[in-house]
Amino acid sequence: MKIAILSRKTRLYSTRRLVEAAKERGHRVYVLDPLRCYMNITSHRPGIHYRGEDLRGFDAVIPRIGASITFYGTAVLRQFEMMGVYPLNESVAISRARDKLRALQLLSRKGIGLPVTGFASKPDDIQDLIEMVGGAPLVIKLLQGTQGTGVVLAETRKAAESVLESFLGLKESVLVQEYIREAAGADIRCFIIGGKVVASMKRQAREGEFRSNLHRGGTASGIRITPEERSAAVRAAKTMGLNVAGVDILRSNHGALVMEVNSSPGLEGIEKASGKDLATMIIQFIEENASQGRIRTRGQG
Ligand code: ADP
């Protein structure tokens, strides 16, 4: 097969591993920077150009689109879909997962366990917003944040009020969430391929920190997940419409709570923690599904 990987950098671990795995299985693979793709939007023959060349003949495309380029990146992916190229994850599914409010609303509609969450842009009554999610301590998240930046733990109501006032004063939309203390600085990342959890890891925040992001000094280890956690992760990915996803779960006193569904989950931490060759599993998934032409939306919606 001829496979495109949409990624800004060839040397990123996940991109490198996918290239390696694809080559090993006899495919031709090209890493394309989505920002350098330019497109011709005509009804008869949609096309994409890259460095003066007309991109044709691809069987599959693997989107590895960073959060900061979601808008343009999903437009490029949509163009591939319109050309009939099989996307590992479809552009609509990525857009759903990237929009944190939309994602939480869709998950709650399906009855998937979530931390009690409020969101606001310009509330006149901050007290009421705090009350709505059960009071302090609570977690406040900027809608734009990634890798733990813009995620604040407010231990007291006073702290929550002042953080909320300053974020909202900066005209940022925020999520306000119950703090799951019993998670004790840990969360579980479930890696999903084709509706199955194929690997999982526990991420533990370093001492004195509640955010377990590996970028913030968290450590990863293998973990056995419960059937309830497995089912929550699978349902969350399915609700987004993602074939490949990283679902983050908090272990709470009232069960598994889904925190986020990641549409471009990194491979490095989880391949190391689980000892699994996820890159090859992804390529195998593409081999099975691209040949059957299993594209749901072809750029619709
Ligand atoms: P980002 O998407 O920027 O990584 P997250 O929402 O995943 O932000 O939060 C970062 C980390 O903070 C999580 O991995 C988790 O360890 C911790 N965390 C987030 N929300 C909560 C919460 N409601 N209760 C307890 N810990 C939380």
Please give a handful of descriptors for the protein shown:
301 residues, alpha+beta, Rossmann fold, Dna Ligase, domain 1, D-amino Acid Aminotransferase, Chain A, domain 1, 3 domains, four-stranded parallel sheet, 16 strands, 27% strand, globular, binds adenosine-5'-diphosphate
Task: Give the secondary structure arrangement, pairings included.
Layout: E1 2-6, H1 13-24, E2 28-32, E3 37-40, E4 47-50, E5 53-54, E6 60-63, H2 70-82, E7 86-87, H3 91-98, H4 100-109, E8 117-120, H5 126-132, E9 138-142, E10 151-154, H6 157-169, E11 174-178, E12 186-193, E13 196-204, E14 219-222, H7 227-240, E15 244-252, E16 255-262, H8 268-274, H9 278-290
Parallel strand pairs: 1-2, 1-6, 6-7
Antiparallel strand pairs: 3-4, 4-5, 8-11, 9-10, 9-11, 12-13, 12-15, 13-14, 15-16
Helix pairs in contact: 1-9, 2-3
The chain binds adenosine-5'-diphosphate.
Task: Please give a structural write-up.
The chain has about 300 residues and is an alpha+beta fold. The chain has 3 domains: about 90 residues, Rossmann fold, CATH 3.40.50; about 60 residues, Dna Ligase, domain 1, CATH 3.30.1490.20; about 100 residues, D-amino Acid Aminotransferase, Chain A, domain 1. The protein has 9 helices and 16 strands. It has a 5-stranded antiparallel beta sheet with strand order 14-13-12-15-16, with helices on both faces. A hairpin with an 8-residue loop joins strand 9 and strand 10. Helix 1 crosses helix 9 and helix 2 runs antiparallel to helix 3. The model has no long low-confidence stretch (mean pLDDT about 95). It binds adenosine-5'-diphosphate. The site of adenosine-5'-diphosphate has 22 residues, from strand 9, strand 15 and strand 16. Adenosine-5'-diphosphate (ADP) binds next to strand 9, strand 15 and strand 16.
